[in-house]
Write a structure and sequence with these properties.
The chain is mainly alpha-helical and 249 residues long. The protein contains eleven helices and no strands. It is 72% helix and 0% strand. Helix 9 packs antiparallel against helix 10. The relative contact order is 0.05.
Amino acid sequence: MTGGADPDQRDRLVAALLDFDELVRTLRRECPWDREQTHTSLRRYLLEETYETLDALDARAAAPAGGDAAELDRNLCEELGDLLYQIWFQALLASERDAFDLAGVADQVRAKLVSRHPHVFGDVEAADSDAVRANWDAIKLREKGRDSVMDAIDHTLPALLRAVKVQKRAAAAGLLGDDWRDREFADTEQALAQLRRQPSEQSFGELLLAAAELGRRIKIDPEDALRAATELARRRYRELESDGAGASA
């Protein structure tokens, strides 16, 4: 497999990464804060930087036409750098234990991506993204020696993300039935009717699950949709708050 970057780009990338590696190692040696850190102590910063990167991505995606895209891209670049630092730092800590290093991380993920893309690097055909997902899950099952596509779905994921992951795996494995594409709104309407008849935590959870599944079927990411709707609601409440303050002045 050959790289796509031209020689100048590769040289620039190598130089930048080597400089960055030296910086991380220098901070680890000479900065009192960096010297104190462990895998566990850095967890909160990894999470914070992940969410800040998501915020930057959301801001870039929501930018109006003609807006300051360059500034949004600068912010996204900065947040990706902060996230990269956390990943690099974790790998450096592992290398201090002689467990693995950043090169090992890169080698491992490269080998995994090649293995799980046989439609790119092998002779397997995949007509669409659903077929890619099905191939990915089947290969992962073999690699991990698992009995079910439902195994090893992280319990620490936020509930909505975990629901979507469960549903995606079920769809890829053909567990939703032959008619699932024809039930787009039916399952959600049925769950809502059940909630009206018997309000409970379970029936409300079934409605949320059905709504998340509906989003997946109509190609709308529930997490992104809820985040966007929440931001719109926040802005509306801010406007109402301002109007109220102006009226009472």
